[in-house]
Amino acid sequence: MCTGKCSKCIGITLFPLAACAIVSNILLYFPNGRVLQLSKITDLVWFFHGILGAGILVILPAFMMLGAGGAGCCANRCGMLLSVVLSMMGFAGGAYCAVISSLGLIGGPLCNTGDGEYLYPFRNDTLEDNYLFNKTTWSICKEPENIVLWNIILFSILLAIGVIEAALCFIQVVNGLTGFICGTCMRKRKTNISGM
Q: How much is the pTM?
């Protein structure tokens, strides 16, 4: 497979991943489908890790990868070099999303514990006492309903998307460098030399 075709395949794969990341991040603003005051939304959601990190910062290199892989093969090295630079940006966006999502999973959601005060009841848990491994502790959060499950599912989706996007962008960095250094595949053209 030539470097241009590989670029195109990676670019096409990144679009649905970026769209899912944006949607998942937006859903985190509406715990259990409810509209809450801004002060009652988990703080790590405001880092825009799905919208900016795994979304916009990955869509930009995906467009470039499609251009670099246009019509099956990339005919210029500058396009591949630009795809390398943008893929590094996409790698950073995917990694950023994975890190923030991990922190969101470890820290747990902001919730009402029954006394009307919103706090993070799981933030200081040790690994052995972590709420992720002990479903009985989820009942500490009274409002919004099912907030723990909501956060676990969406942060897990964002974590997986971030890791996959970072891996694909890293593959494109290697692919683009190969295309830039070694040359891209060119279609063999038949030439008529009979006139010489």
A: 0.88
DSSP string, 44-94: GGGG-IIIIIIIIHHHHHHHHHHHHTGGGS---HHHHHHHHHHHHHHHHHH
CA distance 13 to 20: 12
SS3 111: strand
Read off the tokens for 76. 């210029």
Question: Which amino acid, residue 127?
Answer: L
Say how far apart CA 6 and CA 186 lie, in whole Å.
14
Q: Residues 122-173: pLDDT tens digits?
A: 988 676 778 998 899 999 999 999 999 999 999 999 999 999 999 999 999 9
Whole-number Cα distances in Å, 64 to 11, 58, 82, 84: 8, 10, 8, 9
Q: What is the largest CA-CA distance in the chain?
A: 93
